[in-house]
Design brief:
110 residues, mainly alpha, 2 helices, 2 strands, 58% helix, rod-shaped
Length: 110
């Protein structure tokens, strides 16, 4: 028998393969969790940016015209506000022409 040759039994191969598989699965799980966290953060930031853009346009309208716009369609038509209605639902509520509107943005994406 040659003392320098190594015979690999199925048990030896499994012992070497299992840590590699576990490490690979751990990396995949970590990357999946990290990417979903980044996606969630980005979606939240987009919703907040849309809300702030609508509020800024309403304040700009108030500064120029002296009243807050009565509807969201007025902001769309005269102040260039736009968004994808398949991604976000926007609730625009006005109580009075001299009080700022309440804006709520809802994410419609699954």
């Amino acid at each position: 028998m040659n003392r320098f040759s190594q015979e690999h039994t199925p048990h030896d191969i499994r012992r070497r393969l299992v840590p590699s598989v576990v490490l690979t699965l751990g990396c995949v799980l970590f990357l999946w969790k990290f990417s979903s966290s980044v996606t969630e953060t980005t979606n939240h930031a987009q919703m907040e940016n849309l809300k702030q853009a609508i509020l800024r346009s309403a304040v700009h309208c108030y500064a120029v015209e002296g009243i807050y716009p009565a509807s969201l369609s007025y902001l769309e038509k005269h102040y260039g506000i736009s968004w994808n209605p398949e991604e976000y639902a926007v609730d625009y509520e006005v109580f009075s022409s001299n009080l700022p509107p309440t804006v709520t943005v809802i994410d419609l994406r699954p």
